[in-house]
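Run folding on both entries below.
>entry_1
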Amino acid sequence: MPEPTKSKTRALFDYPPYWAECYGRAPFLPMNRAEMDELGWDSCDIIIVTGDAYVDSPSFGMAIVGRLLESHGFRVGIIAQPEWQNTDAFQALGAPNLFFGVTAGNMDSMINRYTADRKIRSDDAYSPNNEGGKRPDRSSIVYAQRCREAFADIPIVIGGIEASLRRIAHYDYWQDKVRRSILADAKADMLVYGNGERAIVDIAHGLASGRSIDTLRNLRGTAYMINDIPSDWTVIDSTNVDKPGRVEKHSNPYDVLPEDEAASCNTPAANDAGTESSTPNDDPNAPITLKFMSRQERQAIRKGERDRTVLRLPAFDVVKNNKVLYAHANRVLHLETNPGNARALVQNQGGQKLWINPPPIPLNTEEMDYVFDQPFSRVPHPAYGKARIPAYDMIRFSVNIMRGCFGGCTFCSITEHEGRVIQNRSEDSIIKEIESMRDTVPGFTGVISDLGGPTANMYRIACKSKEIESNCRLPSCVYPGICSNLNTDHSSLIKLYKRARELPGIKKVLIASGLRYDLAVESPEYVEELVTHHVGGYLKIAPEHTERAPLDKMMKPGIGAYDEFKALFEKFSKKAGKEQYLIPYFIAAHPGTTDTDMMNLALWLKRNGFRADQVQNFYPSPMASATTMYYTGKNPLKRIKQDSEDVSVAKTASQRALHKAFLRYHDPNNWPMLRDALKEMGRQDLIGNSKHHLIPAYQPRTDGSYSSARKKNSTPGKKRTKKGTILSQHTGLPPRETS
């Protein structure tokens, strides 16, 4: 039965070590019996099954979890990318003494395998030699089932981003339907979501002490199946705290309420006591009816009995057939993601009930250092020989300085996985890792490829008040503008950059993580440090769009913030005597985007001289708010009701192709499609052969020449420089070397 989740947390390093610590630390976590024999092990305590190749780096989930458990004295084995057609690979290390930890890897296996157009990828950056097909679709489910077949009595815990983002009933883009929680399909014993260090350490020590896994019910960041809700818990229907109905004015989440009312700051609707919608959560065929809230429920809200209050989400059988209630359930889940005020959730999965404990308490700096200071070798396991693993090549000389993101972009799942509270490493720990990389990693040339994380410039940025932070329910700290309670001081990051670039043997420290430019402009000193010392010729940033309608659905700032950053970027580049360029990224076919929006974006691109070589259509990833918009046509950023705002969605292959074509307006292959579309839109004025038109009226001949007359021996739109490079006359493009 569920127990109240822990209100106080135990430091990650404050546990008595397991007896097997006497074996010491392994150079690599073993992947076969021979390696276990070399270490003197007769068995593994925990075996991690992963869909990624095993790279012993803190950028790979299996290495972080494995090394952390090893630091507690547990013997941890790795089964990486096993053949899944039978159980042989899952029996290779024998039965673990405590449990199997199963993960699809650093990516959702479906996103890893398929493009946004549902086409199979031929490559896999997390596999040796970039080879595709090394993991099954829905890897967590398949791996968990094989583990169960191999050893029926061994507990199975699933985790990682695939499990995290599929923890409730969710829309699956590849099947175009709502699926149950991945826990129900995998038939695992427990699911760990988010950054799971606290939960996984507690699970290991709990099982090692002789407890059964079905007694470990009080761990934050975990989910499991139950038959009945305990009678001593107060159950509040989610449609009461955020009922599908009229749209009320949002209350101010920053109002600090008296203690007896603080719990009512749990949603913008918390003071809306009196009615609840209950039947849709139980019966998929029942009409939505309203009734008065029970006395017990009113008292639970007023008294703040959060540790024994659970929100009941609409059941799987309901949300799979009712898009309004699906959008409602997704909205409520996102409202319950702040560790300071989130409550437990329960959702019927068609028989059993899925119980989801509140999110994990973020790691403090000392704990983050403990995790990242483990003795990682920072190279792939020797079993891969000279095979290239592209994902490793990308992070080989990078350092993760923080976790989390308070941006809340609706198309991104970082917030749902890592949370909005930034978890920072200490400056000393980061410098120590750089020095270790410099001295031990083969092939290091003195260039750090990135000092970053989910976002480059959120290091040590947080709410000014812990009390406000713990009560806040807003999905973003920077939308629709930067919150007045957010401390935007970049001085700690500037200090870190300076210290890193001044280290002996370090020639250059680059920043490759995504930059939140609306935050950066709050600190011109940061922009100057970045532009002067940490840009390698060009800087990639992501305004994502230019038009207000899609930007509002993304929860992104207006293009004016980009213009402000661009002015600072160019100012400090000129001051440093450097020729540097901004490369903006944009998304096509995001929910809320019309054909006219994409046309206006194309006009902006041409006006500003940008020609995108690679563009990305919106990819509906599990549990993202934008995915809910895509599936339901409703906006979960606002109260959901039957007749609430409809979101325009480009779903057909032809419209998605058109939106993508607008981003590549300069590609002759797209001109016929764009001509037809512009004529339908009544914008024939954009078709013509002058520089003021979006696309020309002519089409290239099959031999590559154009039907219009051209001056011989000239390259239209380009000029040759003295150094032999070709520069586009469109401003903003970096030089390209001639062949």
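>entry_2
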Amino acid sequence: MIKQRWSRRQKTAPPVHAEYLARDKLAWLLIMQSVLILPLLFNLPPWLWLIWAISALWRTQMFRGRWGSPGKWVKGLLTALCVAGMLVSYSSRTGTETMIGLLVCAFSLKLLEVNAIRDAQFLIFIGFIITASQLLFSQTPQAAAFGLVSMLLLITCWRSLYLTRMQIPTLRLKRGGAIILHALPLMLVLFVVAPRLGPLWAIPNQQTAKTGFTDTVAPGDLGNLALSQEPAFRVAFNNQTPLPPNQLYWRGLVLDTFDGRAWKMRDSWGRAPDRDSGNKQALIDYSIIVEPHGQPWLFSLMTPLSATNTTNSIRITADSLLMNYVPLSQRMRYEVKSALQVEWPEAPRLPSIQRDIYTRLPSSSNPQARALVESWRAQQLTDQQIIDNTLALFRREFSYTLQPPELGTHSVDEFLFQSKRGFCEHFASSFGFLLRAAGIPVRLVVGYQGGRWNPVENYLLVRQSDAHAWTEVWIEGKGWQMIDPTAAVAPNRIELGMSAALGESDRELVNSAWQNSSLLLQIQARWDAANYVWQRWVLNYDNEAQEGLLSRLLGGTESWRLTLWLIGFGLVSAAIFAWVLVRRRPSLLLRRELKAIKKLEQKLKQFGYVRGQGETLGDFIQRILVNAPQHSHALRNIHQLFVQIAYQNQTAHIEQLERAVKQFPK
């Protein structure tokens, strides 16, 4: 019998002590999770809102004592909803969004199981990963500031788990902020000297840009894009001097196929580059920071000779276009050298195969435009005369507008002979059709034209509203020559920007409140300059930038230099920290109410009243009131508050005591 009892005792596990969370600690967890998860829900499927809302509501009701812990059926149902949502939203693709969606599911459901400090710690650890994942969707200064706020809440919440006495929320945040401030110097040092392995946000994701043009342009496409004020890219010229507006044509795509209504790019990646020929003149160096647009093409002026970035992923095609090897899902900076002019030692020739491509048209499209060209050819006009006639026609009878009427199947005929109102793609498309009908090789080019110069940081901001289409015409003996039909109709569009070329009704569509106020314009320029500095020196801080900075600071990038510098920095920092700690140690040992009384004694000392050795605060105040009865109310109030805090443990009055001491002797 004794042996049987002994074996039963051995099989019985000892009770596990679980330190349950107080209500205030659960409240901090709820606040922390709500703040951290908010920016992610705007970039993830809507059903995740439902999962998080159910979890937060259930946990809140548990916090209020209204509901009990969820049972197995409730947890199983929520898990099944997450699995079904993941399958529906991400069944055919994998990537960072899929992983973040799964992480948000775990982050939301884990809240229902938080009962002890260990559970809360696990939730906080997930929160650190959630904070880092926020930067995968946005890397703006605002996102970085929000990340710091998230870190502050995480540190404060983590620290609150181990508090043994109540603290007001502002004091908790202050203590958490102090921990972050202590870590900031080390973070900055590591950012400057640590090897650049590629930023976190360089991981490809599934999100694509919502602005920008595609490799197919039909009437009205760029007109809709012109209403967007989103930035397309920013350009810094090496000599910090912008080119004249009529030279700021940023080539993006060459469209060489026309189906009767839309122009398309025959090869979305561009043909391989030909052998270099021609003398390149008017060379210019510049750097571009381009916004993500989900496509492989980049932008450059005229004829790019070289284009480099940190990953060497850019190539130049035969049409003098810049193509990245992968679609652009993240902001990227690259350096370009372009030639604004090309002179040929011998007259260039266009191969017959390419001539056929650049003069090809659908056989039955736009008969009226064809008849017009045939009448010109019947007059035995030269190619240059046909070009001049077309530009003169546009200049004489057409107008520039953002609100052209919709065009049907024969879009060129309807534009040339009926509406006569259009945007840049209308003029470029009809101009290209007329020249091809006359047997003149021509291609459509889409990109951006112009930009707004920012004098704060000396760069050019090109917005989506600067999207533009023009043509390149093959001139015998000269090669491809740029001709912009829009310049014949609205020259102000090229020199002064799109808004200057529009009428009153169209201008109301694109103008905003800040464009009519010089103060708001300056604020907008400075804000955009701050974003540019952030992108250039933080997001694009690569190996090359690091070597340049360390060379200027240390005189080189050798390992021994970095080691000596880090050791010296560490010793100086440790000495400063030790000096501050020793100097503040007496005050750090005092409680807040005692610190307040010390400040009161310093103020009274200026009036000649010094507290004696071993003299109580009450006796000290009573002695002062004999000669200074005018301070009776203030000093008795301070003494009463001190007694309540120090001897009656009424810590809620601590701020009132500090405020009373600060206001004394008013």
